[in-house]
């Protein structure tokens, strides 16, 4: 894709006028108009400023630089790179620290990187090919052989999942087919969409939070997400606490302790 068209697409996707973007980037509307028409060729620093002003993810900033004919500014390391060892240690620490509540780490596509042992309660009964490092958690959530048969509010939860798949059109089309015939309930949702999940410890009502590395300048690190499940009522909290004992015993002898992980030491 040529740079003027790429820049214009990024700007319009964020509903910014040329004047808005020019002010953010510290330039003039006239110069920005020349760039988007191909009459002016911006320098590397200007491309970086425009990408930052558009608040693009690091991957898209690199793509914009490539479109302009410049080398990427942000590295994309493998997760097992020695430089990311502190990241792996931090993620394992957070996953263990979140027990007895389930927590997991996924990449940009939603593929599982790591999870703590409490996540086993979420995945119980799911087909083996939908579970474990490398499996897609969105497919796990909505697939008929995944969590879908155990989700009490599949229509609402399904729409919540689908809303997160804007950049994955093929996966969105696949998963939309699993929930397209379901009508959301007319009941009020409350302050957040909970997950109503049947389990061997009773029905769980769970809220989710998503954490990212806010200061990341590596593409891989910036795209990691840590998703944590929290109890939405006292009964769920008690069930998760009761389940933690057997799961901790079952996990004994596995490394890293209390996690199911694709994180590897250098």
Structure description:
By secondary structure, the protein is of the alpha+beta class. Helix content is 43%, strand content 13%. A hairpin with a 5-residue loop joins strand 1 (103-106) and strand 2 (112-116). The radius of gyration is 22 Å and the shape is elongated. The two termini are 37 Å apart. The mean pLDDT is 88. It comes from Streptomyces camelliae. Residues 7-61 form the HTH cro/C1-type domain. This is Helix-turn-helix domain-containing protein.
* Structural domains: how many: 2
Q: Please estimate the helix content.
A: 40-55%
Whole-number mean pLDDT = 88
How far apart, in Å, are the first and last alpha carbons? Answer: 37 Å
Task: Report the portion of residues in β strands.
Answer: 5-15%
Q: Which outline best applies?
A: elongated
């Amino acid at each position: 894709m040529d740079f003027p068209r790429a820049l214009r697409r990024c700007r319009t996707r964020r509903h910014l006028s040329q004047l808005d973007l020019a002010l953010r980037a510290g330039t003039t509307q006239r110069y920005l108009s020349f760039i988007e028409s191909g009459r002016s060729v911006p320098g590397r620093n200007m491309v970086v400023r425009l990408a930052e002003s558009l608040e693009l993810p690091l991957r898209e900033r690199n793509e914009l630089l490539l479109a302009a004919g410049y080398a990427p500014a942000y590295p994309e390391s493998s997760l097992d790179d020695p430089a990311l060892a502190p990241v792996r240690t931090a993620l394992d620490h957070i996953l263990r620290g979140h027990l007895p509540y389930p927590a997991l780490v996924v990449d940009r596509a939603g593929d599982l990187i790591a999870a703590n042992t409490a996540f086993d309660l979420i995945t119980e009964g799911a087909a083996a090919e939908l579970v474990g490092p490398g499996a897609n958690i969105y497919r796990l959530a909505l697939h008929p052989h995944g969590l879908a048969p155990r989700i009490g509010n599949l229509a609402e939860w399904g729409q919540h999942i689908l809303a997160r798949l804007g950049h994955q059109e093929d996966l969105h089309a696949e998963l939309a087919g699993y929930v397209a015939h379901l009508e959301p309930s007319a009941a009020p949702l409350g302050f957040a969409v909970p997950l109503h999940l049947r389990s061997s410890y009773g029905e769980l009502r769970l809220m989710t939070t998503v954490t990212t590395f806010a200061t990341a300048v590596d593409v891989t690190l910036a795209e990691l997400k840590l998703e944590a499940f929290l109890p939405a009522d006292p009964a769920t909290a008690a069930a998760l606490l009761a389940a933690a004992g057997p799961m901790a015993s079952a996990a004994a002898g596995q490394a890293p302790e209390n996690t199911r992980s694709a994180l590897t030491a250098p």
